[in-house]
Write a structure and sequence with these properties.
Distance between the termini: 46 Å
Structural class: alpha+beta
Radius of gyration: 32 Å
Shape: elongated
Order of helices and strands: HHEHHHEEHEHHH
Strand order of the largest sheet: 2-3-1-4
Length: 233
Amino acid sequence: MKDTRDDEIEIDLLQLFWVMKRRLWIMILAVVVGAAAMLYTTTLMEPVYTSSTMIYILNKTNNITSLSDLQLGTQLTKDYKVLVTSRPVLEQVTKNLGLNMSYQQLNGKITVNNPADTRILTISARDTNPETARAIADEMASVSVARIAEIMDSVPPKIVEEGNLPTAPSSPNVRKNTVLGGLAAGIAAAGVIILLYLMNDSIRNAGDIERYLDLNTLGQIPEFEENERRKRK
């Protein structure tokens, strides 16, 4: 009895494979349409440029005498990371550059990262204008250095790398979005085909009679050519 059930599952999977094969053109069409739609949508998006600058955090004594000092410096770097995106810093940058935006809007353009096991902060700024992106990154570094030295009463961090002028947009990624759009459309089409197949409980052949009704067929009545012609009309 167990073998019979396993055989039925295998036959079902085989039938599903042939259904997918017969509907392969639908999935290919869905992939093409999805990729084309995503490509068109992506080209309409305004490109965004990213510029980055780096600052190096120093201890007040500018010396590392023990492992505990190094660990303290790493912990302080996390505090400095929060200070960089604090409201006073963002408001000062907005004022210095004459930006027509709130500090919350500017904060949405800023990303601060601290590479593992380092005391370096990377400040990245995004904008639709590459020159504005670089200006924001440089001003963020300059204002942050002064703010950190004032609040922490420590040696001002060093700016080790000024903002670069981006020559290519960082987003949107046309190739990636196009591939993902086509892939998502293809998967969706395959899912619909499988769902319609599983929901279709109509009896289409002798195998379905034996599988669903547990009855043996004694014979089949073939269709005449005249009936086939009528169906075609």
